Amino acid sequence: MEYVVYEQNGFIGTLTINRPKALNALNKQVLTEINEALDEICMCSLRCLIITGAGDKSFVAGADIGEMSVLNREEGTAWGKFGNDIFRRLETLPVPTIAAINGFALGGGCELAMSCDIRICSENAVFGQPEVGLGITPGFGGTQRLARIVGIGKAKEMIYTASNIKADEAYRIGLVNKVVPQEELMATAQKMAAKIASNAPVAVRLAKKAINEGLQVDMDKAIVIEECDFGDCFATEDQKEGMKAFLEKRKEKNFQNK
Prior knowledge:
single chain; alpha/beta; six-stranded mixed sheet; 11 helices; 10 strands; 47% helix
């Protein structure tokens, strides 16, 4: 692949958007390669996925405007579906995902970050949904995920004004989980990924499933989803190992992902 690099070290994978001369902007090829990378990842050996951008200026500076500028209505709808399908696939990936945001996360870049479970950014990060200034709406989930993450009022303000916000404001409104110096970004993401990977993989996956599915229904249905996933844990060897380690007062746990 030309613009996407995937590496795995132990249980932790890192997917890097590698188009720094274009500030890692998303064109059709980049999105296709992200999708192909997800095809190739072996979920049986992966416990956490980090997504980042190449260089120190940009995570993803948006979608490729030149490519979008010539689209008609039908092509625009299809382009939105193309990106949304991939981002939704990422959002529902069985393993947890961390966006390590190293600079600009605008338009499609902000939408890509919001498709991840957790967002950590560098101090120079900038977020925004500038689409209405270009005569379009956010098209890769921005109108939906931003409101769910930061609240309806703030999401409408950001989208209607097409205004960017800096890292400290993104943290204040809950768009990101943590802000760190640029040079500490990847180490921080990897440390969190390692902490996630050290826990029972089946339980982590079921927790993600319960959260994602539960948010789409009312509370009465949501707690039933939780009860079923909770019960499923008791059919795993990892549950037996985790509780045995607790009762034996030992820190070392040998989770086998089954």
